[in-house]
Amino acid sequence: MAGNSVRAWTRPHDWAEVVLGAAMMLSPLVFETSTAALWTTIVLGALIAVDGLVSLSRPGLVYGEWVQIGFGVLLFISPWVMGYTEMTAAAWMSWLVGVLTVIVGMVALPVAIAAHNRTAGQH
């Protein structure tokens, strides 16, 4: 894994971020949502997926993992902030994907830092 952490498109946690974001974006096709829930899940899901793709393409980009953690926190609190806690499936999807996004981002952070440190002298 150490050798793969500096190669683009090889880190499984970044692929997990892409999958989590895509699942969140597609969740309104399965779960009942309000307009606020629909746009919140689509936008945050897309941002999570895009950030995962950026992290995949640039393994030493440390701030991308911090952004990912921030998106996970936003997704977790969104049912309360956007008012869709009564839509049980959509709310639980937001909570679950939010927590998983934070966990995956935290796991990826030290790997991104190590990749950054290995490539820092190569600029």
Automatic annotation (TrEMBL):
Query: Protein name, please?
Result: SPW repeat-containing protein
Which organism is this protein's natural source?
Answer: Haloechinothrix alba
The leader peptide range reads: none
Write the lineage as a comma-separated list: Bacteria, Bacillati, Actinomycetota, Actinomycetes, Pseudonocardiales
* Domain of life of the native organism: Bacteria
A matching Pfam family? SPW
Q: Which InterPro entries does this chain map to?
A: SPW
Q: Which UniProt keywords apply?
A: Membrane, Transmembrane, Transmembrane helix
Which residue range or ranges hold the SPW repeat-containing integral membrane domain? 13-105
Q: Where are the transmembrane segments?
A: 36-54, 66-84, 90-115
